[in-house]
């Protein structure tokens, strides 16, 4: 679940993005919804699946859609929801690892719990002169978990956790 977030933190579009997708992540959000939130046009998008190679989701398929909007992006990843408290803890530990990576680079982070989702807001160091934030929310519905990340370290955006959570809710509502 969090591998896509880590790839996003590295500033790359995953090489595994392909034309087919198990969970059809790109169908869960409309380009117009992202354009309205970010004030930019979607230039392109890619969708694909990855087989998780380790941890509690080993062998599971994670579907990801990445939308490129100018210099920034939004990424939605979908995988089977955690079945046990241990799986949930392992998934959140991976998210915390990504958060710690940003902190080591001077970013500050904030955790925001909003009605059924946990969101992370990361703000770049003042010395970077980069305005905006990187925002991510993890939510669950219909037996699936999703992670929506808006912004990227080289091009954060000025969105709130509530705005990202609202988009995540739309994606959850559209799950099959």
Describe it:
It is a single chain. The chain is globular. It is built from 4 helices and 7 strands; from the N terminus they run H-H-E-E-E-H-E-E-E-E-H. The model is unreliable at 1-18 (pLDDT under 50). It has helices at residues 3-9, 31-38, 85-104, 161-173, and strands at 44-51, 61-69, 72-80, 108-114, 117-123, 134-141, 144-150. The protein has one domain (3-173): Protein Transport Mog1p, Chain A. The protein is an alpha+beta fold and 176 residues long. Helix 1 (3-9) runs parallel beside helix 3 (85-104). Strands 1-2-3-7-6-5-4 form a 7-stranded antiparallel sheet, with helices on both faces. The longest helix has 20 residues, at 85-104.
List keywords for this structure.
Protein Transport Mog1p, Chain A, 176 residues, globular, single chain, alpha+beta
Largest sheet: 7 strands, antiparallel
Distance between the termini: 18 Å
Number of helices: 4
Radius of gyration: 15 Å
What is the domain total for the residues? 1
Residues in β-strands, percent = 25-35%
Question: Under the CATH scheme, which class?
Answer: Alpha Beta
What's the topology here?
Elements lengths: L2 H7 L21 H8 L5 E8 L9 E9 L2 E9 L4 H20 L3 E7 L2 E7 L10 E8 L2 E7 L10 H13 L3
Antiparallel strand pairs: 1-2, 2-3, 3-7, 4-5, 5-6, 6-7
Helix pairs in contact: 1-3
């Amino acid at each position: 679940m969090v591998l896509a977030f880590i790839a996003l933190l590295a500033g790359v579009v995953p090489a595994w993005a392909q034309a087919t997708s198990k969970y059809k992540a790109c169908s869960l959000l409309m380009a117009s919804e992202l354009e309205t939130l970010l004030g930019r046009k979607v230039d392109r998008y890619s969708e694909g699946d990855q087989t998780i190679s380790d941890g509690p989701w080993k062998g599971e398929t994670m579907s990801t859609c990445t939308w490129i909007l100018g210099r920034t992006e939004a990424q939605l990843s979908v995988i089977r929801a955690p079945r046990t408290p241990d799986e949930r803890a392992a998934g959140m530990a991976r998210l915390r690892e990504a958060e710690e990576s940003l902190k080591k680079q001077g970013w500050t982070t904030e955790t925001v719990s909003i009605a059924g989702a946990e969101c992370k807001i990361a703000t770049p160091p003042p010395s970077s002169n980069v305005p905006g934030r990187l925002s991510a929310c993890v939510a669950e519905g219909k037996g699936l978990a999703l992670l929506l990340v808006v912004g990227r370290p080289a091009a954060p955006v000025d969105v709130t956790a509530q705005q990202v959570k609202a988009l995540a809710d739309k994606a959850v509502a559209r799950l099959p």
